[in-house]
């Protein structure tokens, strides 16, 4: 259909060009016959236009088609991005995860980590002490005080850091230099009502981050020793750990925010309390149900745009349909095939349901989806945790002494076998294999090798009794869509390759238009030169003719007189 239309356009343009050229030549002959001067500028314009028009029309047609292809591809990529972003936002925001509950949010708050399973969460926490950061302040200085060159050395149990101070620095300059060092210390300048200033320095929270400050040379009067609580600076706040008990087991943490106490739960301590805070969980069933329906709507919008733009032309006695602008696009075909396979793809190994089809999401004959809400509601009532797991990326192990510390979504989905875990005579981890490939050892952690299918996986082994474990990495719908989007739009991805192809076509069309314009400029110059030469010659011929006529008239008159 497209080729036929293009052919008609080219023929029409060619006919018009021939007519225009004939008219221009007729004008020249008429003018020459009349013996008057030529309007060469207008004639050149007509001839250039007649020659350029059919070639420019071909380029214009190609440009319009390519622009439409780029636009359609952009729409499809945007649809895929919207589908991915909406799911990612719900997952990262915890809207589709069972969330922990606390009996007193003024004491602590708790949130679910991505990939966690908290439907059976229970326990209690008593917050006995909050973590604090050591804060010290200097003596008061005049606001105009400047310091000689020197340095400040900060030392804690993890090491030391030295900050150099230039001569002539003010107290504000000293604070700026400390902050610029980014060594874990924050400095501020306090201005009193009298106008005098004090330097205040705060470290990180936790007893291990108690620090000492030693000033040298021009800053020797700025010092503090945390071990003896002595020096020219005064301790305003003493560094200390958070102290709490979880299910009557005492624990400490250097920070008031941590995620390593209860698997899958991030906790933030806010205040102390003698009363235990009870932990529980709350399913997000209504959010999960709505997410299924929203997914179907977003999927259908994407799939409909793909179908419209990849349609192949057809004709019958009653109707004719044109091909879509992306009918031959390999990248979009790849995306379409991937979407078709996703619906019945195994996305979870947690519980009753492992595919979208099992919870009521069916594929229609045209490739779009329909959500059977009756089947969906039954699935949510029967095994809500399994439906939740179907949408969220998860990772789990069959051995409680083996934990996955790599980020959720970082490892290719699949089931992996951890075997041959070995230790030395003192119980230190020495080696292991994952699907038969040796893993790297770092302390109590095991890291998948760079050539492993599970590259990116990091495991932490507790104790020295683990010999094997099954590692399950599930993408969920969210992970599958994200993986598809990443693959399609990455450098070398199918949609990126299509985009690059169309951009190259656009650049080539522009190059041809530039070449045609240059060619027509040369043609215009050549015609102008030819017409100028012709005008000069005609003018000469007319002068000669006029002279001859005068001579003949003279001869004729002379003969008559004789």
UniProtKB/TrEMBL annotation:
Positions of the Flagellar hook-associated protein 2 C-terminal domain: 239-542
GO cellular component: bacterial-type flagellum filament cap; bacterial-type flagellum hook; extracellular region
Superkingdom field: Bacteria
Coiled-coil regions listed: none
Subcellular location: Secreted; Bacterial flagellum
InterPro entries, per the entry: FliD, FliD_C, FliD_N
Keywords: Bacterial flagellum, Cell projection, Cilium, Coiled coil, Flagellum, Secreted
Limits of the Flagellar hook-associated protein 2 N-terminal domain: 36-133
Main location: secreted
GO BP terms: bacterial-type flagellum-dependent cell motility; cell adhesion
PANTHER family referenced in this protein's UniProt entry, alphabetically: FLAGELLAR CAP/ASSEMBLY PROTEIN FLID, FLAGELLAR HOOK-ASSOCIATED PROTEIN 2
Binding partners and assembly: Homopentamer.
Annotated family: Belongs to the FliD family.
Protein role: Required for morphogenesis and for the elongation of the flagellar filament by facilitating polymerization of the flagellin monomers at the tip of growing filament. Forms a capping structure, which prevents flagellin subunits (transported through the central channel of the flagellum) from leaking out without polymerization at the distal end.
Protein name as catalogued: Flagellar hook-associated protein 2
Annotated organism of origin: Zymomonas mobilis subsp. pomaceae (strain ATCC 29192 / DSM 22645 / JCM 10191 / CCUG 17912 / NBRC 13757 / NCIMB 11200 / NRRL B-4491 / Barker I)
């Amino acid at each position: 259909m497209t080729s036929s239309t293009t052919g008609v356009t080219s023929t029409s343009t060619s006919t018009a060009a021939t007519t225009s050229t004939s008219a221009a030549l007729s004008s020249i002959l008429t003018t020459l016959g009349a013996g008057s001067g030529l309007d060469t500028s207008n004639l050149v314009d007509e001839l250039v236009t007649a020659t350029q028009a059919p070639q420019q029309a071909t380029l214009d047609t190609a440009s319009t088609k390519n622009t439409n292809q780029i636009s359609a591809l952009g729409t499809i990529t945007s649809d895929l991005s919207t589908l991915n972003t909406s799911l990612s936002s719900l997952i990262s925001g915890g809207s589709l995860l069972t969330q922990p509950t606390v009996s007193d949010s003024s004491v602590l708050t708790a949130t679910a980590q991505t990939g966690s399973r908290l439907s059976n969460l229970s326990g209690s926490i008593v917050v006995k002490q909050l973590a604090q950061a050591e804060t010290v302040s200097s003596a008061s200085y005049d606001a105009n005080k400047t310091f000689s060159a020197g340095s400040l050395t900060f030392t804690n149990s993890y090491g030391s850091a030295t900050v150099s101070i230039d001569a002539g620095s003010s107290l504000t300059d000293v604070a700026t230099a400390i902050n610029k060092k980014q060594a874990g210390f924050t400095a501020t300048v306090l201005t009193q009502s009298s106008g005098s200033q004090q330097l205040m320095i705060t470290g990180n929270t936790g007893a291990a981050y108690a620090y000492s400050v030693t000033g040298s040379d021009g800053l020797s009067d700025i010092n503090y020793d945390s071990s003896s609580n002595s020096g020219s600076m005064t301790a305003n706040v003493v560094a200390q750990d958070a102290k709490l008990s979880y299910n009557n087991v005492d624990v400490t943490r250097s920070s008031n925010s941590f995620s390593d106490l209860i698997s899958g739960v991030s906790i933030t301590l806010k205040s102390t309390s003698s009363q235990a805070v009870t932990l529980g969980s709350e399913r997000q069933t209504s959010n999960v149900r709505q997410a299924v329906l929203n997914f179907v709507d977003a999927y259908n919008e994407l799939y409909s745009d793909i179908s419209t733009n990849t349609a192949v032309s057809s004709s019958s006695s009653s109707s004719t349909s044109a091909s879509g602008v992306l009918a031959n696009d390999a990248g979009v075909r790849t995306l379409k095939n991937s979407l078709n396979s996703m619906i019945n793809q195994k996305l979870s190994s947690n519980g009753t349901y492992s595919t979208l089809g099992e919870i009521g999401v069916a594929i229609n004959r045209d490739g779009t989806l329909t959500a059977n809400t009756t089947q969906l509601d039954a699935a949510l009532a029967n095994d809500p945790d399994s439906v939740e797991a179907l949408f969220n990326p998860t990772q789990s192990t069959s051995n409680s002494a083996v934990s996955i510390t790599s980020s959720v979504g970082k490892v290719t989905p699949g089931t992996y076998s951890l075997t041959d875990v070995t230790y030395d005579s003192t119980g230190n981890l020495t080696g292991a294999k994952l699907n038969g490939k040796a893993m790297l050892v770092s302390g109590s952690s095991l890291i998948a090798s760079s050539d492993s299918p599970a590259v990116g996986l990091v495991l932490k082994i507790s104790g020295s009794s683990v010999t094997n474990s099954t590692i399950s990495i599930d993408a969920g719908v969210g992970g599958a869509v994200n993986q598809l989007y990443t693959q399609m739009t990455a450098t070398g991805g199918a949609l990126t390759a299509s985009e690059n192809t169309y951009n190259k076509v656009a650049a080539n069309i522009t190059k041809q238009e530039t070449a045609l314009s240059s060619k027509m400029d040369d043609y215009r110059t050549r015609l102008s030169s030819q017409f100028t030469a012709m005008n000069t010659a005609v003018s000469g011929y007319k002068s000669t003719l006029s002279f001859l006529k005068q001579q003949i008239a003279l001869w004729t008159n002379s003969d008559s007189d004789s």
